[in-house]
Amino acid sequence: MAIHYSRICLQYLIHLAHDNVDFRLPEIRSLLSLRGKPFDPGENFKEKSPFWRLNGLSEEDVNSIMARTVCAKSAFELWGHGRTHSELRNSLLKYPTENMSPFLQKDSTYKINVYTFNKTLEFEDRIKKIDAMEYLSFEGRVNLRNPKHIFCLLEDYGTDPNDIPDEPLYIYFGRWIADGQRELIRSHSVKKRHFIGNTSMDAGLSFIMANHARVKAHDLVYDPFVGTGSLLVACSHFGAYVCGTDIDYNTIHGIGKASRKNQKWRGPDENIRANLRQYGSEKLYVDVLVSDASKPIWRDGVLFDTIITDPPYGIRESTRRTGSQKDSVNSVKPSEDYVGDSHVPVSMAYHLSDIFTDLLNFSAHHLVIGGRLVYWLPIYRPEYCEEMVPLNACLRLVSNCEQTLSSHTSRRLITMEKIKEPEETDVLAHLSDPHFSPYQGHNAFREKYFSGISKRTLTGKEETNKMAANGGE
Ligand SMILES: C[S@@+](CC[C@H](N)C(=O)[O-])C[C@H]1O[C@@H](n2cnc3c(N)ncnc32)[C@H](O)[C@@H]1O
Q: How far is the CA of 312 from the centre of ligand 1 (A)?
């Protein structure tokens, strides 16, 4: 009983990847909340550090986070830590023997890894560091190929590659528990995806979005600007049923011009269902429809556990909605840089601010309570302030993370959670509180985006390519 008690009071060390730094905390918080656990960091927590100490978790909690995270690399049961090797030694010697001994037994095998952040060590130096750990009573045999237990000495040399100290700033030692799902970034790369488009979302960000959204098995997930379905691919990986709509007939039907170099037309079966089949999740495909997100097509009431989407910003594709012939005085041509082969019967401008107001209203009406909306908001950085993030009385803002795209532009990943059903008074909320009214400044995003960079020497085309390389539009 005593051993059980001490084992659930352990501290765990999470080693995080040093990319998408802004997205890491909301990801880990979201995954913890799926287990009903709060984020309880150790003292001196630094969000930008690659190492986080977490309290109040069980090994099962840690395993469940690692089974989903793409932001964390590995997790360890932390046995000791300190600013110097001597502090580490003191800390390790104080660690309860009953916590260590099950992993140090004579009949077991083990290996010790050395990991250094922001410094590369010679092989001999690593061996010296391992030899210096002899004060821990490892009784098992070393087995480098297939050890029963893996331990790791992790040294943190700070985050400045131009100022690497001789000695580590902080050192940790722990028992390895699990790796995260970084491998998904490679295995689901859009480069190897069956059906892609000019705006297909990068695999890593798609999984981050699905984690921020807390998508889980048997959920029903909807993407109203589905494109080639990259977000549905990530959500179905976590066992959710997925569906989507897009205004573009050719995209939904997987026909028209191909986006790949050296391929003129899309081949047969280049569609979203085939993408899910590629990753073994076709049984979770519900359907996709041609539909304009500005028009109501859904029956009233709660329909979806999650709404996850990457709305058009008008950089690579125009922001459009369908209209009748008589509306066509207001119709817009696709933007000059629009390279897709689109098919939208008669299209009219769909202002960015309206897109977001519609998206939040739709989510307020059609999400389950506790269900999340996760979407990208384009931002003109010189003018951005938090008040620009659209609000809705039925949705609580959970997180707001920035991905910088250029010196002047970025997009922010917004996560909201439905807290109540809409009432009649909510429809009028925008009249009394400017937070709830559409931010008209978003409409000028495209114009500002290009005027911003014209101050520099980049051409619109170059900058567009840069955004695409970042997984943006
Ligand atoms: C940024 S892309 C989405 C890319 C998608 N996440 C993917 O991975 O392929 C935005 C999509 O919104 C669609 N779209 C534009 N206006 C729309 C509207 N009014 N209603 C529905 N879809 C629209 C475009 O055709 C485009 O496919």
A: 5
